[in-house]
């Protein structure tokens, strides 16, 4: 894919900019990178702290994959694999916390937020945004227990280097999803996921607690409860380890 990188000094949210471009009919492969976001968006309606100074990578990718709209959510799994793989490529230990947080030593270094637009049974476009904490100052001090930046574990790569590594891997993951389905992506994801075998509490429309047994065929989080029941979790839920963040 010919990635076309648009670099902005400041914007509200690169995800919103990429969605606008999608609506305008811009071709896939557009990547919007901002030095700073004034209205960075996170999962579950949260905001994403995005200060200037090159401390974080804030980027959104516009794609028009050949996928049925109901499988568009699987693109976030592609992005999580791509980002965790890219971070590992630079020598950092990285794991995935379902659905799509990237962790280093149990603390969050990257968040992924995707959206899509579909019409007449067709996926029109998808936007995958990621915010990666590279250097000191990338996350607010009060999140220190749960967040981290790469610099805390070693010399961080330049934004450009990690962006290139991420985009290369993202293309491979997305092409595999389009051509061969989810199973290969799912397997790599499950291998990098830190949750299998852990006891977690999940909150969403209701609270559930159990031990994670794996990732299901449509990206679901599979839990075994104390009563020995299997719970299948999807959607906008938040997962916490019963003894800490994970
Ligand atoms: C999360 O809550 O974990 C997801 C955070 C996603 C943040 C990125 S930063 C670049 C892109 N633009 C946004 O407004 N959000 C995403």
Which helices and strands appear, and what pairs or packs with what?
Elements: E1 4-11, H1 14-24, E2 30-37, E3 56-63, H2 75-89, E4 95-97, E5 101-104, E6 107-119, E7 122-133, H3 159-180, H4 183-192, E8 199-203, E9 207-215, E10 221-224, E11 230-233, E12 238-241
Parallel strand pairs: 1-2
Antiparallel strand pairs: 2-3, 3-7, 4-5, 5-6, 6-7, 8-9, 8-12, 9-10, 10-11
Helix pairs in contact: 2-3, 2-4
In short:
By secondary structure, this protein is an alpha+beta fold. Helix content is 24%, strand content 33%. The strands form two sheets. A seven-stranded mixed β-sheet has the order 1-2-3-7-6-5-4, with helices on both faces.
Description:
42% of the residues are buried. The chain has 4 helices and 12 strands. Strand 10 (221-224) and strand 11 form a beta hairpin. Helix 2 (75-89) crosses helix 3 and helix 2 crosses helix 4 (183-192). It has 2 domains: 4-192, Bira Bifunctional Protein, Domain 2 (BirA Bifunctional Protein, domain 2, 2-Layer Sandwich), CATH 3.30.930.10; 199-239, SH3 type barrels. Helix content is 24%, strand content 33%. The structure holds biotin. The site of biotin (BTN) has 21 residues, from helix 1, strand 3, strand 6 and strand 7.
The secondary-structure element order is EHEEHEEEEHHEEEEE
Side-by-side strand order of the widest sheet: 1-2-3-7-6-5-4
* CATH class categorisation of the largest domain: Alpha Beta
Biggest sheet statistics:
7 strands, mixed
